[in-house]
Amino acid sequence: MYSNGDWRVSGFLSGPVNYYLPVIAANLSELVNGEQLGLTQFTIASRILSICLISSLSVIFIYSAADILGGRTTALVASSVFTISPMVLGNSRVHYPDHYIIVFSAWVLYLSLKILLDGRRRSFYILGGIAVGLAAAVKYNGILLFAPLGLAHLLTYRDGSALERSKLFVRDYKLLIYLAVCSGLVFFVLNWSARERLELFVRDFQTNISNYEGGGRWLETTNGYLFYASVLGLLSFGILAVIPYFLGLISLIRKRPHLSALLVILPILLALSLGGYKRVTVRNMVMALPWLILILTVGLQALADWARSQKNLTARIGCYLLLACCFVEPITKTAVALTRDFAIDSRIKAGEWMEGNLTPGTVISAAWTCSYPLVDNSRFTVKEVYPPFTREGLASEPCSRYVIVDSWFHWNSFEGLQGRMFTEPVHANIHFINPSGFRYELERNKQEEASRYLMLVKRFSGYGPEVELYWVDPAVCF
Question: What is the pLDDT of residue 478?
């Protein structure tokens, strides 16, 4: 799109905004620099847009929503919790629709609270419609953001007699029309190229559904509901955060039940709508993060208040220690990931080592996640490999002499050749592997058979995934 100057979206597996935003960033950068960007420069420009602008807007909306909920202290805690969330940081570093949709989810969160607590103003519904339309134009299930806005609208009628509430609801029906019309207009305007290629749009949309229904080699589970429940509780901020999550939810149910209903509706709908499919991934729940962060913030504050109220010194110290420990895991993961930003990419290190140490003409099987030009393809033969690694795949012509695999590839998530799980702090949260899928054992057995012919040569660490280079026993070719 950028190189050809053609704004028509070439495919519809995700919404058009996911394509437009990087292209807009590249065009702005080209306007400043006065020259067209190369592939690397384009990637950097789109990253700057998504991390510096999109992520910053998410923090602003979450701060504003939390300020409505509980004042400035709540707002500072919520925005801080969001900023150091490993799941947020991890998803801001990959180009998926999920890292764009989070800002629109945070915007809807803010508008939902405004409707609930400040009243039914027309501007809230118009802006809410725009936000939902944009979210659906990023990822199609963004349409679920209608639910909290609609619930916030209904909850404004909780006072008065049933007759009075009915009259007010009938009187204000136009507000819901504004919400629906604005979202529909935004979605259809942004999908203008779909009208020209309606058949392709329908086919890609159906492909999305069939992908989720059919599962995936390493993204498959037998219980999607349990998977997403564990994701919501354990990965968004850390294992110990489960305690303040429950405290926050209990506190809201006891003191402000209407707010608890508003904050849980989107996470529950996401889990219910996706849990029935075989294919699962952590990224699917990113849209729920702003809502979870507010529940977590309420719980953290409740824990701090309870600690201050304790007259027993031991109990008070224990509460503060628990509170501090809740932050240890996310801060550690985030700090390690940020430190790695200044290291050389481990895949570049691996490529330089192979260029200097392997014989020209060597055949290398490279996992698809690290098969971009690691070495000069005119000097080496690189075979791109998709899961699972098998003896047959290694032996196929031309027979492989070396195998290179990075820790984003599912091999290491099957405990790798060294019998260890990949635990890189941030990216492990994105590429979470659920071993309950029925294909897991079959593919693991195939890879373990192939692993008998491999010997570790060197491991490379740096920015991004860890990379391992293996020598292939020539016997695999016979």
Answer: 72
